[in-house]
Amino acid sequence: xxxxxxxxxxxxxxxxxxxxxxVELAHIKPYVKVKEHRFxxxxxxxxxxxxxxxxxxxxxxxxxxxxxxxxxxxxxxGPLELQALQWFADDTSRREIDIPRGMDWAFGNLTRDxxxxxVDRPPTWGSVADGSLGTIGLRLTDRGHEAIDKLLRAQxxx
Length: 158
Known about the structure:
Mean pLDDT: 91
Strand order of the largest sheet: 3-5-4
Oligomer: single chain
Number of strands: 5
Radius of gyration: 18 Å
Shape: elongated
Low-confidence stretches: none
């Protein structure tokens, strides 16, 4: 179960504005009240966020939403997609990132869900004339920006 919780969070703090390492497992509802260790009640937090949560600086409702959103994201998106979302969340003014031409398949769920779109670019230095090498853009859509905003504010994604 510990491994599952860590994998769900990518071995990083589950709070999107943190994502620090190392992490430890925390009970969302206190163990003294529930008297059991269940996946649904465990979340990976860095020591600082764990302490902040225990002190009440991070409220229970937010922590429950972080866990719910984390489950939705890790169940739907692959590692590269999650990394791209984190990259956009780290700098909310960022609109587009470069990805290698031909790698758009790795971001298929983001594009199918309308969170991002692939933007073709003309060949640049270092690419071949037929356009088979080089980069293309992965642009966050308005819907994608809304999703990032909800993640950062511990709001439901659905």
